[in-house]
Amino acid sequence: MKLLTNRTLMVFLVIFSVYGYIASCTHDNVSPLPDPASNTPVITRGTSVLLPGTMTAGDSTQWKLDKAHSNVMWSTNYVGAAGLLTGRFNQFGMHNVIDAEMTTYTTTGQPLKDTSWAFYENDPAKTYFNGYVQINQSNTGEPGRDGGCNISALGTVPITAGVQNLTVTNLAKIKTTKVEFDPLSNDYIVTLNLTWKGNLAAPLTQSLVGRLKYIKKTYVQFGTAAGYSVFGLQLKFQFNCRDFGITSTSISDKIDIECNMNFNNK
Fold first, then answer.
1. Which of 32, 76, 212, 246 is found 20 to 30 A from 252 (Cα to Cα)?
2. How far apart are CA 264 and CA 211, in angstroms?
3. 210-223, pLDDT tens digit by residue?
4. How confident is the model at residue 145 (pLDDT cuts 50, 70, 90)?
5. Average pLDDT value for residue range 220-238
């Protein structure tokens, strides 16, 4: 019995020795565990310089706003409910509208050239843009609301067919005062002035902070048509509509704005 016990012990010792040898030989082929993921953001910026010039068609060095594929959207909480009220502005542009240009234009196209902007990917101090929307062109998809209560609630006037209304009662403008790198992402932090009359006696200018995202330039081609390049700028910011005399109880104080501007060099 004792002999059997000794033999059994020897068998187990041999098995464990072999296993240890195999394990030690194969351990060198096992990749080490990766280091814990870093929380440091990976920021990559190119050197693109994108300018409008005079927007001459066919000049690939001059970038044009592709209004048909751009939009300016707004959203706010519907008071007393969990859902959002949303809409967009049908008419908008990228122009520094000075007082002398704040009038009506008999045209269905852009009343002013969309040339008041510049984007320097790696030098934000040179980046700037101006923009505007026509308030009575707010489109929620509900004609009764857009042409009815929204007109009086927003302090504007009804749409006149065939007319672009850039008068003081129908214009909200933004103008950047500073653009700088966001240290935590590839985005940019933008300080801008929002000027709007709303229901006030005169326009109010308010300084706000937003976020700008650059959708990198890329080359596209469809079918046999000539190819061209595109890029995008996305700006998001928020303001308090009560500051502009808006008293409607159907919306909350805060209005979120999202501007999605697409450009091409056709």
1. 212
2. 22
3. 999 999 999 999 99
4. confident
5. 96
**Which stretches of 27-147 are DSSP H helices?**
143-144
DSSP β-bridge partners for residue 23: none
Cβ neighbours of residue 109 under 8 Å, at least 6 residues apart? Answer: none
* C-beta separation of 66 from 265 below 8 A: no
Q: What is the pLDDT of residues 61-72, one digit of tens each?
A: 999 999 999 999
> What residues pair up with 252 in beta bridges, in sequence order?
none
Task: Calculate the average pLDDT of the chain.
Answer: 89
**Coil, strand, or helix at residue 113?**
coil
| pTM to 2 decimal places | 0.83
Q: Quote the pLDDT of residue 38.
A: 62
Q: Rounded CA gap, 117 and 244, in Å?
A: 26
Q: Which residue has the tokens 């929002």?
A: 194
Is residue 196 a contact partner of residue 204, using CB atoms and an 8 Å limit? yes
Q: What are phi and psi of 165, to 5 degrees?
A: -100, 105
- In contact, 45 and 187? CB cutoff 8 Å: no
Q: Name residues whose C-beta falls within 8 Å of residue 153's C-beta, 6 or more positions apart in sequence.
A: 246, 247, 248, 250
Q: Which two tokens stand for residue 196?
A: 């709007």
What residue ranges define each of the domains in the chain, with the CATH number in brackets? 62-264 (2.40.128.110)
The DSSP code for 36 is P
